[in-house]
Amino acid sequence: MRTMxxxxxxxxxxxxxxxxxxxxxxxxxxxxxxxxYLDEISAQYGFNRAELDTLFLQVTxxxxxxxxxxxxxxxxxxxxxxxxxVTQGRAISGAKFWRANAxxxxxxxxxxxxxxxxxxxxxxxxxxxxxxxxxxxxxDVLSTVAFDYPRRAEYFRRELTEFLLLARAEGWDPxxxxxxxxxxxxxxxxxxxxxxxxxxxxxxxxxxxxWKNPGDALAxxxxxxxxxxxxxxxxxxxxxxxxxxxxxxxAEKFNLKYTVAELMExxxxxxxxxxxxxKAVYFALETEPGVTSHYLGYxxxxxxxxxxKSTLYATAVLQLADDIxxxxxxxxxxxxxxxxxxxxxxxxxxxxxx
Length: 354
Known about the structure:
The protein is α+β, with helices and mostly antiparallel strands. Helices cover 56% and strands 9% of the residues. It has helices at 2-30, 32-45, 49-56, 66-70, 78-85, 88-100, 102-112, 116-127, 138-148, 153-170, 192-198, 214-227, 246-250, 260-265, 299-307, 311-330, 332-339, and strands spanning 136-137, 178-179, 237-242, 258-259, 268-270, 279-288, 291-297.
């Protein structure tokens, strides 16, 4: 009898929680701002209005994710940031992935004119080649920020619209897409607008599958870099000395507007001969506590900051790319494999994306 009472009480609590969740979801659809939004995209893009209501009744707001957005936008110094991303383990894993997929990677590199190691470094840093893509439903997080975070609402409503459009174009259920707390998706962690603009269907199967298809993920990343102006074979950055007022230049570190000659007039002192007509950005990294090193970032450096607006990120990607290339060339990944204990193979079920 006691067990039965406990079961009934448990079922009662579960039913109450389910009812509360349903009411919360219905409240989202009932909100005037959501109604206006759904009316607008229905009229503009031809979505069935009743189907939108049915879809958004199943959206579950995630208010806790807003805590991530409320955190101050401070960044670690380079000497703390670098060890998280530029490691021997990441270099070895990049070389292993390269060796296991060499023909595919070489074809994509040639097609998009982007070095293999750069593509691999980005996908390594972003998700470890798909291992850590995020577990949030994309429609939940986009809707949460779009309607409950005024500071970023306009941007996220656009991304929500792009997401609905891509789901319709791909013929996939919008409720099954998974991603990060900010709605970034797949191996390359594309926001919906980036997916719509740059995702590639490498194997021509009719889908741009950046979640499960290595070819699509690699090609999409390469295409992003190509479309933002990547120049194969060009240097990305170089150390310099600096003697001047750094603040105005640091404020422009994401704007490729000055030539090397103009930067030299502002205090940049190249350590080697430079093409003074080339455009560059000045940036600085705290390489040790209290020690600042100075750099010029050229076009390719700037391109990576289009992928992620951070000089720390761009530098980490470029250094990891060098390490992956070196590990692949030296066979360091093969040595690691030889030293690893043999594992009994385990059969795994084949999984489909949707």
